[in-house]
């Protein structure tokens, strides 16, 4: 049995005041009844750690450097994230792959660094529209997934979460249909099962890409969709809550 996990990816949004208002509003609501996490910009992680202290909402970061420490100006290490209270970190988000040169290999190293610091990586995979139209979806997501499993090993991958995020659905308002998403999630789960039956059973596969309160229930009803990674709709506490509790 995999518990639903819903993760907010705030991207480069927020302010001290807006974050405090979000936390106050979200924590005033009934328990969301699922595992929930907020991945905030790194400068706000300590603020969010204080605001979420004692609640059931976990803290996450949006990226991590693959090295332990050293001359990497502007970067943040996994140990630092762990020290500040992060239990999750997103690695391989398509925006980082497209805009900041994150290769499959670097994403795998980032996941490995996170695991070494005791943080659960949320490994994002997903195809572009061009790749989908060329019939390459499963090959692309399998390659992205295998790069990480190959580097961290199947045993440690059990501490990872996968997020299937079709690039064409991110921030576009055009979510994948539940059927399209389920097809890819099932293929990803089969890939995990090839390594170990336990991996297929245990690892949560989240869907991300224009999830909103209105479409979350139908997506989450699919057998291989274990929750969501939510961008735009997670900026409003009420919308994020409605996604967490969608049935
Ligand atoms: C994301 O960036 O991870 C994402 C899913 O964004 P949105 O929900 O805005 O499509």
What helical percentage do the residues reach?
Answer: 40-55%
The helix count comes to 12
Number of strands: 8
SS content category: alpha/beta
Mean pLDDT: 98
Order of helices and strands: EHEHEHEHHEHHHEHHEHEH
Strand content is: 5-15%
Largest beta sheet: strand ordering: 1-2-3-4-5-6-7-8
**Uncertain regions: pLDDT < 50 for 5+ in a row?**
none
Largest sheet: 8 strands, parallel, barrel
End-to-end distance, in Å?
17 Å
Rg (CA only): 17 Å
Ligand roster: phosphoenolpyruvate
The global form is globular
Would you spell out the secondary-structure blueprint of this structure?
Layout lengths: L4 E5 L6 H13 L6 E5 L5 H8 L4 E5 L16 H7 L3 E4 L2 H6 L4 H13 L3 E6 L3 H5 L3 H16 L1 H4 L3 E4 L13 H18 L1 H6 L2 E4 L7 H5 L6 E4 L6 H8 L3
Parallel strand pairs: 1-2, 1-8, 2-3, 3-4, 4-5, 5-6, 6-7, 7-8
Helix pairs in contact: 1-2, 1-12, 5-7, 7-9
The structure holds phosphoenolpyruvate (PEP).
Please explain how this structure is put together.
The chain has 247 residues and is an alpha/beta fold. The chain has twelve helices and eight strands. Helices cover 44% and strands 15% of the residues. The protein has an eight-stranded parallel beta barrel, surrounded by five helices. Strand 1 (5-9), helix 1 and strand 2 form a beta-alpha-beta unit. It is globular, with a radius of gyration of 17 Å. The site of phosphoenolpyruvate (PEP) has 13 residues, from strand 8. Phosphoenolpyruvate is lined by residues 9, 165, 170-171, 208-211, 229-233.
């Amino acid at each position: 049995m995999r518990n639903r996990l819903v993760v907010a990816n705030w991207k480069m949004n927020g302010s001290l005041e807006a974050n405090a208002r979000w936390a106050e509003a979200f924590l005033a609501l009934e328990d969301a009844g699922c595992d929930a996490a907020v991945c905030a910009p790194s400068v706000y992680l300590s603020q969010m750690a204080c605001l979420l202290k004692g609640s059931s909402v976990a803290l996450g970061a949006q990226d991590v450097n693959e090295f332990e420490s050293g001359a990497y100006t502007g970067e943040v290490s996994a140990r630092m994230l762990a020290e500040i209270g992060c239990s999750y970190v997103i690695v391989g988000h398509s925006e980082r792959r497209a805009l900041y040169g994150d290769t499959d290999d670097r994403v795998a190293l980032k996941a490995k660094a996170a695991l070494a610091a005791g943080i659960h990586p949320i490994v994002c995979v997903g195809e572009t529209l061009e790749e989908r139209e060329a019939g390459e979806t499963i090959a692309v997501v399998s390659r992205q997934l295998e790069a990480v499993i190959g580097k961290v090993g199947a045993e440690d991958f059990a501490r990872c979460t996968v997020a299937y995020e079709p690039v064409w659905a991110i921030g576009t308002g055009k979510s994948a249909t539940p059927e399209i998403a389920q097809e890819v999630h099932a293929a990803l789960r089969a890939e995990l099962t090839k390594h170990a039956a336990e991996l297929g059973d245990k690892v949560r596969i989240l869907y991300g890409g224009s999830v909103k309160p209105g479409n979350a229930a139908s997506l989450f009803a699919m057998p291989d969709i274990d929750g969501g990674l939510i961008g735009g709709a997670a900026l409003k506490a009420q919308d994020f809550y409605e996604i967490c509790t969608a049935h």
